[in-house]
Amino acid sequence: MPQLDAYIPAGALTADAERDLVANLTDLLIRHEGADPTNPTVRSIAWVFVHRAHTVYVGGAPAEVPRYRFVASVPEGQFNEERRQAMTEGITEAVLDAEGGAHPRDPMRVWVFTLEVPEGTWGGGGRVVGLGDIAGLALGDAEAGREYAERVFAERRGEPVAAG
Q1: Domains of the chain, earliest start first
Q2: How does pLDDT run across 15-28, given as a tens digit for each residue?
Q3: What pTM was estimated for this model as a whole?
Q4: HEC states along the chain?
Q5: Crossing angle of helices 142-157/131-139, nearest 10°?
Q6: Cβ(26)–Cβ(100) under 8 Å?
Q7: Least packed by Cβ within 10 Å: which of 148, 149, 159, 163?
């Protein structure tokens, strides 16, 4: 159930480039959360919210070239250092590619924040859901989802993980 808040300046990209970018970002978000981007259930719960930034200020003055901000949120246990780095690099490159050379290719114009929502604080479907619930939905098997979550949290605590 990954979510992405994409702050894209109005007019920074063509409509086609933005549509392609959002599709690409959806795949990146799912893949770097550790799920299968071809799974239709996973895709149905991967949402990208596009926020229109009308004016972005840099150092107190309007920016001369577009600046972008992305906030990727996943349930606790889904990001590690490698996935965070891959997400940051992937989003940055996708945005700069989407510009199609219209502006200098400067990765410092793209900021990415990779957040984990603490277990027990994610809400969906009118209730609080945990990683096990979400994984169970994605896997189509509630028990497998629970086992997955237990394994992820045991690894984070440095506990031995039962084979399974």
Answers
A1: 3-117 (3.30.429.10), 120-164 (no CATH)
A2: 999 999 999 999 99
A3: 0.90
A4: CCEEEEEEECCCCCHHHHHHHHHHHHHHHHHHHCCCCCCHHHHHCCEEEEEEECCCEECCEECCCCCEEEEEEEECCCCCHHHHHHHHHHHHHHHHHHCCCCCCCCHHHEEEEEEEECCCCEEECCEEECHHHHHHHHHCCHHHHHHHHHHHHHHHHCCCCCCC
A5: 130
A6: no
A7: 163
